[in-house]
Amino acid sequence: MRRLAVPALLMLTAWLVFVSWMNPHVLDPRRIGWLIDGQDRGQAWLGFYAYQWGGWPGMRQHLLLAPEGAPLLLTDSLPLVSWLAAPVLPLGWQFAGWWLLLCVVLQIAFAWALLDRAPGPVPRLLGTVLLGALPMFFARAPHLSLCAQWLILWGLWIYRDPERSARLSAWAPLLALAALIHNYLLLIVASLWAGELLRGLVRGSRAATLVRGVLGVGGVLPLLWVQGVFGGGYVSSRTYSNFPLALDAWINPANPDYTALLPSSPNIEENWFEGFNYLGAGGLVVLALGIGAWLWQARRERALDPELARLGWLVPGFLVLTVIAIGPHPWWWGAPVFALRLPPWLRDALDPVRASGRLFWPVTYTVMYVALLGVMRLRGATLALGAALALQIVDTAPMLAQLRATSLRASWETRYYRARDPRWDGLIAAARRVDFWPANEAADLPVLQDVTARALALGKPTGFTYLARLPAAARARLAREADDFAAGRVPPGVLVVLLDGKAPPSLRARVRRLDGIAYLPPSPARDAR
């Protein structure tokens, strides 16, 4: 029974964390309405839904962005999970709720494993929640793939043990999973592995270290290739530096609705979100106490703790990630401090990490881990950690309430909220394809997702969808079709949904509305212009 007590306690902790963050009805795989609300997680489900119609056992769906289609990686559809679930789940069901619960469980499990130096089970559990339930984990609720931050904790757990970290067999599963979940997480865990390789090159056998490095990279590249990373001709969005890490990210949530105790700069819309690394009031207390504890020990013993010394090999990689995360426009309290002009070639080269603020996550997790180790050396560790957790709960309560509200739709069986009228099914059934104009998700993403979901229910392709990257071939096709649309030419049999409600003068007479959404009904060949 004692052996079961710890797993049961951790599962209970994970469940309490989960229900404070998500409506438990998200675990019903038939509930879809909470997903298609204009968030990235809705696009992830649409990519999986399209994939269920065909594409398995490959990693590409063919109904969205037809006729080119797109890899699951670009729809943020958790390629590995989609690949496993597609043959099993009934058509149109979702796995998102269970994925989020799994992420919470693994966050708690790896945080617990990391804190095995705690002076007792109570401070260990308190530290586990403080490390595994950081605000930046909760904030990724709209983006399913990026909730896999347990990959970072797993990487730290591997790295902290010298014998384990020296084995490629320990890193290979982590690198493979990260490659099959999200490219940013792959880059992040690769930075942890790079710290081990750097240590091996300096302190160990250079030849053996180089062999491990070549084998590790060689194992990851095929996984990226099968997902369509190479050869897609992806065009730069030229938006690197639009979503940076702010210099005050640890202390400033940059959203007044996300904190109850600390001041915040005004919400600067999307710019703050990707760089969100807020520690919370309790996290900041842990950071301050941890720094003090380590400084006191260094002064008393005049020696650096071996684990801290080992973590030093991560610093070069972390510095690179931090510079990229901050970008050429450092922000402080919601405003840029100064701006550097990057040459176009460098901006384009960094475009794959345009949401650069995410790259600071491993630094935040590592610093919090080190701070917790320091606090646990204090005589009153349990009291200090208990007080810090209480502060954290109070401070982040508004954020959790806001994020939980985004999943309230899971309580209802309603599937569509913008395209509610059942006559949409008849319109879509009469069409051979559904197009959206303008081909820009920012025009009205909830409508785009609702109508796309109805189209997929009937197995109909759509000419446009929201992707992380747009392949060059699709971009060229959409440009040609935009010219045709502006000239009043619409292919026969195509239902056109007007996301901005506007049509060129020659087509305005054909505009109809349903649920307040403007559209052009599909026309037979003789009526096409």
Description:
This protein is mainly α. The protein has 2 domains: 2-35 and 96-409, no CATH class; 422-520. Helices cover 50% and strands 5% of the residues. The protein contains 20 helices and 8 strands. The chain has helices spanning 2-21, 40-52, 79-85, 96-114, 121-132, 135-138, 150-160, 162-165, 168-179, 183-203, 206-226, 280-301, 306-311, 315-326, 344-349, 361-375, 381-405, 423-429, 445-457, 472-486, and strands spanning 60-61, 70-71, 331-332, 335-336, 433-437, 494-498, 512-514, 517-520. The strands form 3 sheets. The protein has a 4-stranded mixed sheet with strand order 5-6-8-7, with helices on one face. Strand 1 and strand 2 (70-71) form a beta hairpin. Helix 2 runs parallel beside helix 19 (445-457). The N and C termini lie far apart (75 Å).
Short description:
It is built from 20 helices and eight strands. It has 529 residues and is mainly alpha-helical. A hairpin with a 2-residue loop joins strand 7 and strand 8 (517-520).
Q: Domain count, please report it.
A: 2
What percentage of amino acids are in beta strands? under 5%
- Cα-atom radius of gyration: 25 Å
Q: What is the structural class? A: mainly alpha
Low-pLDDT stretches are none
The main sheet comes to: 4 strands, mixed
Mean pLDDT value: 94
Overall 3D form: globular
Instruction: Provide the helix percentage.
Output: 40-55%
How far is the N terminus from the C terminus? 75 Å
